[in-house]
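[Structure tokenization] protein backbone as discrete codes

[Encoding] learned vocabulary of local backbone shapes

[Begin record] amino acids and matching fold tokens:

___
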Amino acid sequence: MPRPPEQLGSLRLVRQLGVGRKCQIWEASDESQSKRVAVKLASPEFASDKDIRQLLKHELFVSRSLDHSGIIRIDRYSTTGRLPHLVMELFRHPNLKMHLASKAESIPAQAQSIAQKAADAMSHLHANRWVHRDIKPENILVDDSGDVRLIDLAIAARPPSFLSRLVPIKVTVQGSPSYMSPEQIRGHRVGYAGDIYSFGCLLYELVTGHPPYTGSTQQELLSKHLYTSPPFASAMNPSVTPQLDRFIRDLLAKQTKERPSSMVEVAAHLRNAPFLTPQGRSAASRKAD
């Protein structure tokens, strides 16, 4: 993938933090403000791609309607250096997927705090009438203390209107197959319940280390989301409490009306329900030490 120029106006790119299909994330020094920032920019070969420019502008638009410590803050959009890019808060920590792969032993002790903070961030997003549509571990940044940032608002959308729910319209399927709700897979407009389902997939992975469904092909994976009963997290991790086991299955209900009614309800449950048995918490603490 071609490397962008080292200087974009007042921004001096320092090191690459991540790479997507059409975008790159860099840590940069903003010399106009004497501080470090994160820069999400179109890869040079996609610099003139109108869709990328629109997605970046949309992400800024969504961000400006939000004000929550658990959601990454975006400061501005620019095309300086002929590369469309966003300048945003620098949160120099890996995503939850990377944590689960490299720091799995410390995750159980932090799982409830991480889940609560992610749910609170999503509650704020929903309260401001946005559906994220791509909730997954890769889009939750986590530091060593369990503090989180929800990222990637590029495909966030308004929830379906009452009329559109009465007359379903097929839309382009967007999202990540391991975390997509049944209605998302079917090409229906995704509402808050779709994010709640995706959060259920994330929560299952947080306490087991694996997404709830896997498949040898994408078609097999999507079919399981549509037709296979939600798995018990306790089958993968015996430390998961019965209360959490039932709650995750509620989040993963096939029908939207059978899931919790809102992320506010989800966040409240996570604050009050035990995650791990006492033996599980003790074991997690010993491993973390």
